[in-house]
Amino acid sequence: MVTLRNANKKRPAGPYNLPAAEYCADGVDRCTTMAMQSIEHNNETGDRGVKSFTKRISPALRFQPGETISGLAETVLDCPEIAGAIQRGELVKL
To answer: How far apart (Å, rounded) are the C-alpha atoms in residues 76 and 23?
Structure first.
């Protein structure tokens, strides 16, 4: 498990998107599934209908000033936005 802290004590950091390809690379699905609907239009007949589908939504992290978040999966370090924030000094790995 990984612990990250916002290095800035005056400004929030993020949001940092956690793409499923990297964050769920260890085989554990951490995405949320959401039921969605859209209106489908048939150009030939002019009819409209509702199309229902499900979509996986990847999580994101947002840190309040000086906030520490613990218990994150090791794969969080493989996410490009998190890795970049650690390199820039915005986040500190504890």
So the answer is: 6
pLDDT of residue 28: 87
Beta-strand relationship, 2-6 and 91-93: antiparallel
Q: Which domain holds residue 23?
A: 2-93
Query: Which tens digit of pLDDT belongs to each residue from 27-69?
Result: 888 888 999 999 999 899 989 999 999 998 889 999 999 999 9
Integer angstrom CA distances of residue 72 from 33, 40, 82: 20, 39, 12
Q: How many domains does the chain divide into?
A: 1
d(CA 53, CA 50): 10
Report the C-alpha gap between 41 and 48 in whole angstroms.
Answer: 5
How far the first Cα of the chain sits from its last, in Å, is: 10
